[in-house]
From TrEMBL:
Transmembrane segments: none annotated. This is Thiamine pyrophosphokinase-related protein-like protein. InterPro entries: DUF4743, NUDIX_hydrolase-like_dom_sf, NUDIX_hydrolase_dom. PANTHER family: THIAMIN PYROPHOSPHOKINASE (PTHR13622), THIAMIN PYROPHOSPHOKINASE 1 (PTHR13622:SF8). CDD domains: NUDIX_Tnr3_like. Keywords: Kinase, Transferase. The keyword Iron does not apply. Residues 134-280 form the Nudix hydrolase domain. Pfam families: DUF4743, NUDIX. One of its GO terms (molecular function) is kinase activity. It comes from Bimuria novae-zelandiae CBS 107.79. Signal peptide: none annotated. PROSITE patterns: NUDIX (PS51462).
């Protein structure tokens, strides 16, 4: 079956909208637990009840079933809170209770409050357990050859723990605590595509961001149904014809240089990692390839790629 552009957006932005189905939205919200920290009385993420239940009785955590809130009660500084979170997750990792923790990365993601202040850090692999907003960078690399736009598309290594063998954006990666978006991009360009740093710094263009609320499926690895609201800072890079991206690590098998029609064909077959498909659709919109005249769901697609979250963001 051929997937539409809206199908691809549905796949990455699966959390219900109040405006579309108030009853479904209310039912979902009433099922989940909110994650909070002491003295910050607002949600930082949504957690499955089965996940929140595991925190019952663990020191420095309070599980309130009446209000459906899990609160981190210990710590008044980011360092103190982060230490409690790290200790808890290390202990849970040793029990093998959560499959997602088997993909431990030793990389910390930041969690922010309403004033854009850092509240605590969390191990990257554990972030979906808490349902907190995470941040990444995605770059589309392209060339213009004989007046025709061609796009560099990598295939993820089939041995990768998540989305193995699927198609990706030229460069993509998460933003760790303490990193700014562009420096993260420069690092990922070297690691994943062997792109020269001076070229990236001088020619990569920041072109906005996309936001979506992903519900993890089996391709993500680990438990399904975990919530993953994400912000992706988006970049374009027009490459000279003699600059060819090459895998710089074991995360990419190979790169293809495809026409727009070839990219569309593989999108329709569902071969792209879900959020990478969303980035490609955003690229097509910005470059006038996907238009209101040619896409009946244009307005909904554009809106869904820029979702406003229930949680604090930068």
């Amino acid at each position: 079956m051929s997937l539409t552009n809206l199908d691809l957006v549905d796949a990455v932005d699966g959390f219900p909208y109040y405006q579309v189905d108030p009853d479904l939205y209310a039912a979902s919200i009433s099922t989940y637990y909110e994650l909070r920290v002491t003295d910050h009385d607002y949600a930082l993420g949504y957690m499955l009840p089965s996940v929140a239940e595991v925190f019952r009785g663990i020191p420095h955590w309070d599980l309130n079933d009446d209000d459906r809130i899990l609160t981190l009660t210990e710590g008044s500084t980011p360092a103190e809170r982060s230490a409690v979170v790290a200790t808890t997750l290390e202990a849970l990792r040793k029990t093998d209770h959560f499959k997602v923790l088997a993909k431990w990365r030793n990389e910390l993601y930041p969690v922010y409050g309403r004033n854009k202040e850092l509240l605590f850090d969390v191990e990257r692999a554990a972030s979906p357990l808490f349902g907190v907003v995470t941040y990444g960078v995605h770059l589309t690399a392209f060339v213009k050859k004989d007046g025709e736009l061609r796009i560099w598309i990598p295939r993820r290594a089939r041995t990768k723990q998540t989305y193995g063998g699927m198609l990706d954006n030229a460069v993509a990666g998460g933003i760790a605590t303490g990193e700014v978006a562009f420096e993260s991009l420069v690092r990922e360009c070297a690691e994943e595509a062997s792109l020269p740093e001076d070229l990236v710094r001088s020619e990569a263009k920041t072109v906005g961001c996309i936001t979506y609320f992903y519900i993890r499926d089996k391709n993500a690895g680990g438990e399904t149904g975990l919530m993953q609201p994400e912000v992706e800072y988006v970049y374009d890079l027009e490459l000279p014809e003699d600059v060819v991206p090459k895998p710089g690590d074991d995360e990419v098998e190979e790169f293809y240089l495809w026409t727009v029609d070839e990219v569309k064909e593989h999108l329709a077959k569902g071969e792209f990692k879900p959020n990478c498909a969303a980035v490609m659709i955003d690229f097509f919109i910005r470059h006038g390839i996907l238009t209101p005249e040619g896409e009946k769901d244009f307005i909904e697609i554009v809106a869904r790629l820029h979702r406003r979250f229930e949680f604090p963001t930068l």
